[in-house]
Design goal:
Length: 737
């Protein structure tokens, strides 16, 4: 027994010595090397604390750092192999603000070089910029520059890949190491690692890039854009699919996904694990291996079953009937599923760690999406089930707003990118988060007009305020003043007598000289006469500084309205300050025989326009009309001296996504107007009517869609036509007319 104990003790001691030797407890000098820090890889003499020999296969960025050294996210980002020289660029360090001081925010597009082919998507990007109010053909006036070389697809295996791009860009005389340039990119890198390297040094240029990682994203400099398909419309774009809210907001499926499953390589882990949470009932996550030329070489035991189940479901049907849509990463961080889910009002569940979400600088994605974690995939079903139905409804509504405001066309994606950069350049006149994240969105709330939310017609309810309780009347005159009995004189007196009238402006667009001051009637409200700019019809919609009120009452000189009618219309407008409220209504229709839009003035049971010859709207629309709309449309209106009222209706309906509001009018309005000598020939002229048909289609073509919306609502005074004493009615004079 004693001998056995001795042998056991000796065996244990020997084993302990071997273990200490192997794990560094005992140091053995090797061929004169005394400093273990000079040794690379694992060896018996390494210190216990130095474990990089074990970790090197899993962590490449640590090879030049001690394992215990603290690495911040910024240091980690900067220590990566440089994709470009301007890794640390910010607006303050890599952007020349002096180029923007003289002419404001103008964008120059390089002329296309001979022999250089552009993809359809990149051509649409350039066309959107050239058609915007930012464009300048003069590089000396430019603040920002855009290449005419196609940089969208930098995957070397793609047929759209542009070779020798580095040399071509470096030869541009205005390149200046990329300063004040922006580069658009959808795809970078190639199989198997799909890095974010574009294949050339972008220098100090900004990136507007899809699938960009937070690791390579330069805050307040780059712009993350969504990944969109080549079929994404250039202008217009489809509306969201949410037609009405359902309470409770649950659909047939709770969570769905249908897409490719990658068997090997980057992006395969998450999609390979989806089958763990798929239950074929309310969580339907379908993947297929059947893609690529050699998919059968890599197929696994699940492929046949997955492919069979994949083919049973229609993707569109799943989208429209699911509450949540999973958006896992693909080969790259971004995915087409993101925009598809937004449009379908299917709340996106993001599963792409490290993806800088599109327009993250301005959009609060927590109000429209669920941000998941790839490492916690098994918790996703329980997480989405725990979301309250009120929150689901809010998320769903926000998906529709964001889709229509920023993503449903390539033009909006490009303009949003430019507006973000403009806000950085003109920081003193930048939009607030509320402007970007609530209706009507940042593209329609121009900070050059004001940065005060109360100056816009969209935020009164959110601010708990009301518009200024007065209006300014603008009477458009083109006929010389020859008699005190002209209808315009009666109109002026009737409008000025309104208790809500703060001022009357007579816009003199006649070729005759201004009448003497004593020719104008004496009124209770102040009257000022100004000459229209260039005597063109669009001058009635200029943003005059002399308009002190929020509301504008726009009037033609031959309009016949009483004071009571004016009072009632303004009272209605105060409840709808973002819309056009007025009397003469018109409508549009689709002519299937001619395959074009038609215009009608017939009295029908619905309408889509309220003409600005007798209408009230917010004065901000004057600024938007003059600044937002292209000069080509305004020039066409001026040349025809027609259609300005139609264009204003297009604009307001495009902004609000709502129809105008018609108020009660006297039945003889149309006949009275037609009987006036000043414009009788105009309204009866068949060419005038034909011009308006042409305008409808020209305007719809520029907007990319038909923004006008039909309505069957008419606002009448309470007790209107009711069988009660006339003395009990507030707007009794309307019934007497």
């Amino acid at each position: 027994m004693q001998a056995k104990k001795r042998y056991l003790i000796l065996f244990s001691a020997g084993a302990s010595l071997i273990l200490l030797f192997c794990f560094g407890g005992i140091q053995v000098p090797l061929s004169g090397r005394r400093d273990d820090q000079s040794l690379t890889g694992y060896h018996p003499g390494a210190r216990w604390r130095r474990l990089q020999g074990y970790l090197r296969a899993f962590s490449t960025w640590e090879k030049d750092h001690d394992f215990h050294e603290h690495i911040s996210p910024r240091q980690k980002r900067d220590s990566n192999s440089g994709l470009y020289t301007g890794r640390r660029c910010r607006m303050e360090s890599c952007f020349d603000f002096s180029l923007c001081e003289k002419n404001g925010f103008k964008v120059y597009v390089y002329p296309q070089q001979k022999g250089e082919k552009l993809s359809e998507s990149y051509q649409n990007i350039l066309s959107s910029i050239e058609g915007s109010r930012f464009y300048t053909p003069d590089p000396a006036q430019a603040c920002l520059f855009v290449l005419s070389l196609d940089t969208l697809d930098r995957d070397q295996l793609s047929p759209q890949y542009v070779h020798n791009l580095k040399a071509k860009i470096q030869s541009l005389p205005l390149w200046n190491e990329g300063r004040n340039h922006i580069i658009f990119n959808l795809y970078s890198g190639t199989w198997p690692d799909y890095t974010e390297d574009l294949g050339f040094d972008i220098g100090f240029a900004m990136l507007a890039k899809a699938s960009i990682s937070t690791e390579n994203f330069r805050p307040n400099f780059d712009v993350s854009i969504p990944l969109f398909s080549k079929d994404h419309p250039r202008t217009g774009g489809d509306r969201g699919f949410l037609k009405h809210n359902t309470i409770p907001p649950y659909r047939k499926y709770m969570l769905v996904f249908k897409g490719k499953r990658y068997l090997t390589g980057i992006g395969s882990d998450t999609r390979n694990a989806l089958y763990h949470v798929h239950n074929s009932e309310d969580v339907v996550l379908l993947t297929t291996c059947k893609h690529g030329k050699d998919w059968q070489k890599h197929k696994d035991a699940r492929c046949d079953k997955d492919n069979a189940e994949y083919d049973k479901y229609d993707y569109r049907e799943m989208l429209y009937n699911s509450t949540f849509c999973l958006v896992p990463r693909g080969r790259r961080l971004g995915s087409f599923r993101f925009l598809e889910a937004l449009q379908a009002a299917c709340v996106p569940v993001m599963l792409s760690n490290g993806w800088e979400l599109p327009f993250s600088e301005i959009i609060n994605w927590n109000t429209a999406a669920v941000i998941g974690d790839e490492r916690l995939l098994l918790q996703i079903p329980s997480t989405v089930r725990s979301i309250h139905q009120d929150k689901i409804l809010s998320l769903r509504q926000q998906t529709q707003f964001l889709w229509e405001a920023y993503f449903n066309s390539l033009e909006k994606i490009v303009l949003t990118t430019l507006e973000i950069i403009q806000d950085r350049v003109l920081l003193h006149a930048s939009r607030s988060s509320l402007m970007w994240n609530s209706l009507p969105g940042g593209l329609f709330t121009l900070p050059q007009y004001s940065t005060n939310l109360g100056d816009f017609p969209f935020y009164y309810a959110k601010l708990g305020t009301k518009p200024y309780p007065k209006f300014t009347a603008i009477i458009h005159m083109v006929t010389p003043l020859v008699s005190q009995s002209q209808p315009v004189m009666k109109l002026l007196v009737a409008v000025a007598k309104s208790q809500y009238c703060a001022q009357v402006i007579v816009l003199w667009n006649s070729d005759k000289p201004l009448p003497a001051k004593h020719r104008w009637p004496v009124t209770s409200a102040p009257v000022s006469v100004i000459e229209g700019e260039s005597k063109v019809i669009n001058s009635r919609f200029l943003p005059y500084n002399t308009i002190p009120t929020d509301a504008v009452l726009s009037l033609d000189e031959d309009t016949v309205l009483s004071t009571t009618e004016v009072d009632f219309a303004f009272t209605v407008w105060q409840s709808f300050p973002d819309r056009i409220v007025g009397y003469p209504a018109r409508s549009h229709f689709w002519d299937s025989n001619k395959e074009r839009w038609g215009y009608t003035s017939k009295w029908t049971n619905d309408y889509s326009m309220v003409l600005t010859g007798a209408a009230i709207y917010h004065k901000y629309y004057h600024y938007l009309y003059t600044t937002y709309l292209p000069a080509s449309l305004r020039t066409m209106v001026d040349q025809m001296s027609n259609c300005e009222d139609i264009l204003m209706n297009f604009l307001v309906s495009s902004v609000t996504k709502l129809p105008p509001v018609k108020v009660t009018q006297k039945k003889q309005y149309k006949e009275t107007m037609m009987g006036q000598s000043s414009r009788a020939s105009r309204w009866a002229d068949p060419d005038h009517f034909a011009q308006r048909q042409t305008c409808m289609n020209k305007f719809a073509n520029w907007f990319g869609t038909m923004p006008l919306i039909h309505s069957q609502m008419r606002m009448d005074p309470v007790l209107f036509k009711d069988q009660v004493s006339i003395l009990r009615k507030k707007y009794r004079d309307i019934e007497r007319l």
